[in-house]
Amino acid sequence: MIITGTLEIDEAEIEERYTRASGPGGQHVNKTESAVQLRFDVASSKALNAGVKARLVRLAASRMTKTGVLVIRAEGTRSQERNRIEARDRLKAMILEALTPPKPRKKSRPSLASKRKQKEAKSQKSQTKSLRKRPSSDRD
Question: CA geometry: angle at 89 spanning 84 and 92, to 5°?
């Protein structure tokens, strides 16, 4: 399975199982095994490096088993072949997303002008609230 020009996953690493699909389809659903369960062992894959594997595990979340196998189930169409293509497309999309490393966060500081502006707004708000108070009665 070709992911990018430089990355290719061996077909032996991808396992497909066919099961009966749930949902609409009438008698056709009850008779045929059109749902596809695609299993890809991320932990033992030779094509992916450690960083990509870690990001893929994070992306997959609940679709990962404890042993490091990614399980994708496709049962949207009545055709087994279309479900198979859909499952493979989803796997490819997940791997492509895992290939791009996250951008490092850059520390930022508020500018001097924005700090000044915040303080002015705060003092303005304080003055507005103090004017709402009842005047104090100065009795001698």
Answer: 130
Residue 104 in any domain: the answer is: no
Report the 10 Å Cβ neighbour count for 12. Answer: 6
Q: Is residue 52 part of a domain?
A: yes
In a domain, 26, yes or no: yes
Tokens representing residue 127 in the block: 């003055």
Contact 56, 48 (CB under 8 A): yes
- Nearest in space to 42 (alpha carbons), one of 21, 28, 58: 58
Biggest CA–CA distance in the chain, Å, is 98
By residue range, what is the domain housing residue 50?
A: 11-99
pLDDT tens column, 9-62: 888 888 888 888 776 666 766 677 888 889 988 888 888 888 888 888 888 888
**Neighbour-count burial for 97-122, b at 16+ CB within 10 Å, e otherwise:** ebbeeeeeeeeeeeeeeeeeeeeeee
Please indicate, yes or no, if residue 126 is contained in any of the structural domains. Answer: no
Domain of residue 16, CATH code: 3.30.160.20
Q: How many domains does the chain have?
A: 1
| Cα dist from 128 to 70, 121, 125, 133, 139, whole Å | 59, 10, 5, 9, 25
